[in-house]
Specification:
Layout: E1 2-7, E2 12-15, E3 18-19, H1 24-34, E4 38-42, H2 43-47, E5 59-63, E6 75-77, H3 80-87, E7 95-97, H4 101-107, E8 113-119, E9 127-128, E10 138-143, E11 147-149, E12 152-161
Length: 163
């Protein structure tokens, strides 16, 4: 499995239920990587989508503990075990974990690759992603040239779990 995330200098990913910043090139890259694939997300992340609708042209699987939670055109599972069973139907390289923080933390042990947008800024935040640079199980495999959006600098960084 893979994951895709945008983080700031402190590995923050959100504040008060929202992304820290919206960078068009980051969104474009997200679409390019995940279109036609399976995306796994939590209910809170689903609630941030326009109209609370699943992402188009992807298989959306939502992990929620609420047994009555349903979303049109998405599959809802209620445990990591149920999710892993459902994901057996798909090629693991076509599965992307897309958030939020509790979903990332629960599923990071099952991921082999991470696509991370590293934003060179410190935001006020209440949601964080584990620091892969400090995790000996992960190594950086690729890093883009520095990019700029207005006064923000960022890079696309790929990580791979060591076997």
């Amino acid at each position: 499995m893979n994951l895709i995330v945008a983080v700031d200098n402190n590995w923050a990913i959100g504040n008060k239920g929202q992304l820290l910043v919206s960078i068009p090139q980051d969104h474009k890259r997200f679409r390019e990587i995940t279109t036609g694939k399976v995306v796994v997300l939590g209910r809170k992340t689903m609630d941030t989508f326009p109209g609370r609708q699943p992402l188009k042209n992807r298989t959306n699987i939502i992990l929620s503990r609420d047994p009555s939670y349903t979303v049109k055109d998405a599959l809802v599972v209620h445990s990591v075990e149920e999710l892993l069973e459902e994901l057996k139907k798909y090629d693991t390289k076509d599965v992307y974990i897309i958030g939020g923080d509790s979903i990332y933390r629960q599923l990071l042990p099952y991921c082999d690759c991470a696509e991370v947008t590293r934003i060179d800024h410190n935001y006020e935040a209440d949601a964080f992603f584990p620091d892969l640079d400090k995790d000996p199980a992960w190594e950086k495999t690729e890093e883009s040239e520095e990019q700029t959006y207005f006064d923000l600098e960022y890079r696309f960084v790929s990580y791979r779990k060591l076997s």
